[in-house]
Write a structure and sequence with these properties.
Elements (H helix, E strand, L loop, with lengths): L10 E5 L5 H10 L3 E6 L13 E5 L4 H11 L3 E4 L6 H13 L4 E4 L6 H10 L9 E4 L2 H5 L8 E4 L6 H11 L2 E6 L3 H9 L7 E3 L6 H10 L2 E7 L7 H11 L3 E4 L11 E3 L2 H14 L1
Parallel strand pairs: 1-2, 1-4, 2-3, 4-5, 5-12, 6-11, 7-8, 7-10, 8-9, 10-11
Helix pairs in contact: 2-3, 8-9
């Protein structure tokens, strides 16, 4: 294997797939870095078509990710996977650490929970109050399905749909799901026993108006979602439910714990500062 030349731009192994991938990669490239962008699917990302950014697709386990990072001669690992993709984050850190490389987790900014609580307090006397119930898992969220009188709109993605479908069958409640327009996602929904007429196959993030239309289409009186942050359209979902006068069950983000040597940030500029400082030291 040939050695890096003294003038070669550092290569960063970047794990992406969310809406932040393209702008963050573009910024890193503008600051003089090459990137190997790895995503689990071939979902369009609007990455700039420049020589310094290469993309590969397909899921990686620890062994294959470690081999790929080693063979690419990457200088650092940056993981900007979805905040609920705990296993991907763990794999990225383990692979980078095994090779002695610096690792950073870009953690999509969350929701202003305090502001949501103020909103609820201000509407305490309203018949349109949107209750927000926070839970820790899909199983806990599914337990609320039986409380619905009409239908339940589920916007947690295509994974774990079996949990909701099972509870829906047990309670006799209709569920509708909103998932990505990918064959893999639609197949998962169908395998869970969800009929096509109850599947919304569209790519978000969605506006408040769009989510309200989906709620009304199925006459849903309960919304189940994740705390996906501003980039994931979380606030729009809450406001749509508020306008519809229905409660929301929210699955909290995983409480991931990372080694002390792993940098975690929610800001693009801190990613740039960290990689510049870290590689300058090396």
């Amino acid at each position: 294997m040939k050695k890096k030349s003294m003038t070669e731009k550092p290569l960063l192994f970047f794990i992406g797939g969310t809406g932040e991938t393209a702008p963050l990669c573009s910024s890193l490239a503008e600051h003089g870095y090459r990137l190997l962008v790895s995503t689990a699917t071939d979902e369009p990302l609007s990455l700039p078509d420049i020589p310094d950014i290469t993309r590969r697709t397909g899921r990686l386990d620890l062994a294959s990710m470690t081999d790929l990072i080693r063979q690419s001669r990457s200088s650092a690992v940056i993981c900007a996977a979805h905040p609920y993709a705990s296993r991907v984050r763990e794999t990225a850190i383990a692979a980078g650490s095994a090779l002695g490389l610096p690792c950073l987790i870009y953690d999509r900014p969350g929701t202003d929970v305090a502001n949501l609580r103020r909103m609820q307090k201000q509407e305490a006397d309203s018949n349109k109050l949107t209750g927000i119930m926070w839970v820790e898992s899909h199983e806990q969220a599914a337990a609320f399905i039986g409380r619905a009188r009409g239908a339940v709109l589920i916007t947690t993605g295509a994974n774990n749909l079996d949990v909701y479908a099972c509870e829906a069958r047990r309670t006799g409640v209709r569920i509708a799901v909103r998932i990505l327009p990918r064959a893999e996602s639609i197949t998962k929904a169908r395998k869970a026993g969800i009929a096509d007429e109850n599947i919304i196959s569209q790519k978000g993030p969605f506006t408040e108006k769009e989510t309200l239309e989906h709620i009304r289409r199925f006459n849903a009186d309960l919304l189940i979602t994740k705390e996906s942050g501003t980039a994931g359209g979380f606030t729009e979902k809450i406001h749509a439910a508020r306008r519809a006068g229905i409660p929301v069950v929210v699955i909290r983000r995983p409480r991931d714990s990372f080694p002390q040597n792993v940098r975690i940030t929610q800001f693009f500029d801190e990613v740039i500062e960290w990689i510049t400082r870290t590689l300058a030291v090396k």
